[in-house]
């Protein structure tokens, strides 16, 4: 299908499904490893990504950018193979027709207007009708306004991201890769970008975006691939990943009117794995299941006439969630 069949947010028409793709635009990584010198950035990853929106979730330094660059054909795998729509990604100019990449950094000359930037990209792709392709791409990201003829340095963060997306889409690729596309955006800009990616995914494009923020991935992606320390830690739909995360062990700091009584009452409860009295007051409780422990704690305290003063999860950092997923 052509880009102009995908309406902008202002259009109410439904997005037609892609037809003339010549097979699904699948991304296949087979035992892929990438080293930078001694650093293993991607470690033996095997995965298949099909049409729709897929979130690549992982903390900083996990290897997400490296993985996107391997898929774009900018980096050679040290081991394994990467194919996109059945073609090898590395050293294959044919792949550039299939892929659009929106890099994390603003690698754009800010003195150009949005239209000039997208036009330059269209020319690089040697498109037969540059003006037409640029107009379609600008329409798609809703930048077919006076803003297209302003210099990029006057743009908001959201507009800069959208013009990068327009440039990445100008040659109508079937695969769109976006590295941390929501970084620095305000909530309205985020919603706008999410809507655009949703529409592209629904239209049959293969959309892969990286993020270190759970909520972004939850709201946008059908499928989530969790990358930690270069490895694929978990993969599935968001609900599966969410379940893995909430059923993991948690550590709580608990302050109460009678820590000793509470500690002895909690030991042996099914949801509790361990209890320690803190030297400075309060308890540290290791619980097997977040929901079950939260319910049980209130009941136990009531039963023993103990008043709860504070209950704080102690290990809620994203890193601890990821570490758990890797270990499980
Ligand atoms: N050009 C490079 N030379 C050496 N090491 C690198 C290079 N690029 C990345 N790395 C290292 O490879 C690992 C993975 O980095 P990568 O940028 O792919 O992760 P990321 O998940 O995208 O993180 P971020 O969101 O912080 O960019 C990190 O340890 C990083 O320091």
Automatic annotation (TrEMBL):
Domain named ABC transporter: residues: 27-254
SMART domains the record matches: AAA (SM00382)
Superkingdom to which the source organism belongs: Bacteria
Keyword Metal-binding: no
Keywords from the UniProt entry: ATP-binding, Nucleotide-binding, Transport
InterPro entries the record matches: AAA+_ATPase, ABC_transporter-like_ATP-bd, ABC_transporter-like_CS, P-loop_NTPase
GO molecular function annotation: ATP binding; ATP hydrolysis activity
Protein biosynthesis found in the keyword field: no
Family named by the database record: Belongs to the ABC transporter superfamily.
Protein name (database record): ABC transporter related
Protein species of origin: Catenulispora acidiphila (strain DSM 44928 / JCM 14897 / NBRC 102108 / NRRL B-24433 / ID139908)
